[in-house]
Amino acid sequence: MLQVSTLKRKKVSVIGAGFTGATTAFLLAQKELADVVLVDIPQMENPTKGKALDMLEASPVQGFDANILGTANYEDTKDSDIVVVTAGIARKPGMSREDLVQTNETIMKNVAKEIAQYSPDSLIIVLSNPVDAMTYTIFKETGFPKNRVIGQSGVLDSARFRTFVAQELQISIKDITGFVLGGHGDDMVPLVRYSYAGGVPLEKLISKDRLEQIVDRTRKGGGEIVSLLGNGSAYYAPAAALVEMVEAMIKDQKRILPAIAYLEGEFGYQGIYLGVPTILGANGIEKVIELDLTKEEKVALDQSAESVRQVISILSQN
Ligand SMILES: NC(=O)C1=CN([C@@H]2O[C@H](COP(=O)(O)OP(=O)(O)OC[C@H]3O[C@@H](n4cnc5c(N)ncnc54)[C@H](O)[C@@H]3O)[C@@H](O)[C@H]2O)C=CC1
Ligand SMILES: O=C([O-])CC(=O)C(=O)O
């Protein structure tokens, strides 16, 4: 008889099997980070099963060992190690992320209930927009500790910034680091002073004017893709960002990555979720790293925090 190891693989559930959710599921499986459960609403059960099966049928060709299950039944998510929330509507040209708040808040409440019931010990990463406020909703509705409820914005926003810098300098993306703080809106704060190419501060390599243009393009990066796609928003880079965060937690890498964290005094903010530098490991957000900011940077971060606070203030639970 064949002896099979009883060592269990990690389990990641991805809620929402649309563009971002399906792409995330496929990347997670390809990287063999976990078995993946892809969940959508009952009306989408068959397409969700179809997507999962289609991905699984790529595994012999690509040589990855990971199961991918499509379902509309939250019981299948039971005891997930990590739950990634991508459920909800996405914006179309002419809309802001805030236009999604009412619909997605209702969806978040349902999703939170299911996560709390079936995976009470899980780490949660929220993508659904407006993401700072939706992360807050999931935090309040699950009652999970703050280190276990995390939002994704900064990895994506920094990736956009780094892409534009690499294009500008015509050098490898691998040597460029960048940090974007604040809310995931057009007033986010790309921290040029903390961004480098091969260890050299960007300010020494790119003119002030060009850097300002890159910062502006980064702030509007989501909208640029929305205008080009015409019928939805970005999903390849957002999925890649989610997978980097999941990997940091599953492998307990203690990565320093920007994430949306619940702040209780850090950076001078109280009781809001905001994008800040964090250490991500097996316990989720293990630390918020406070940086020294110039007066100008702090004013910009204050403005971004105020925008997030305004969205949070219109949530039904306030
Ligand atoms: N934070 C970020 O950086 C980013 C956030 N987003 C946001 O992510 C969300 C998803 O975007 P896409 O995947 O492109 O949208 P999509 O429309 O392709 O997929 C969303 C899926 O969620 C499903 N859904 C709705 N209610 C559900 C529920 N209660 N349970 C399970 N599934 C449910 C829908 O049926 C749909 O299949 C949007 O709110 C979008 O704005 C997208 C990109 C980046
Ligand atoms: O722009 C959107 O609506 C989706 C998103 O958050 C992004 O791509 O940054």
TrEMBL record:
Lactate/malate dehydrogenase C-terminal domain location: 156-312
Binding-site residues for substrate, renumbered to this chain: 91, 97, 129, 160
Gene Ontology molecular function: L-lactate dehydrogenase (NAD+) activity; L-malate dehydrogenase (NAD+) activity
Domain called Lactate/malate dehydrogenase N-terminal: residue spans: 11-151
GO BP field: lactate metabolic process; tricarboxylic acid cycle
InterPro entries for this protein: L-lactate/malate_DH, Lactate/malate_DH_C, Lactate/malate_DH_N, Lactate_DH/Glyco_Ohase_4_C, Malate_DH_type3, NAD(P)-bd_dom_sf
Residues found modified as Phosphoserine: 153
EC numbers for this chain: 1.1.1.37
Top-rank lineage group of the source organism: Bacteria
Catalytic-site annotation from UniProt: 184
Catalyses which reaction(s): (S)-lactate + NAD(+) = pyruvate + NADH + H(+); (S)-malate + NAD(+) = oxaloacetate + NADH + H(+)
Annotated binding of NAD(+), by residue: 16-21, 40, 104, 127-129
Alphabetical UniProt keywords: NAD, Oxidoreductase, Phosphoprotein, Tricarboxylic acid cycle
Pfam families: Ldh_1_C, Ldh_1_N
Family to which the UniProt record says this protein belongs: Belongs to the LDH/MDH superfamily. MDH type 3 family.
Job of this protein: Catalyzes the reversible oxidation of malate to oxaloacetate.
Protein name stated in the entry: Malate dehydrogenase
The organism of origin for this protein: Cytobacillus kochii
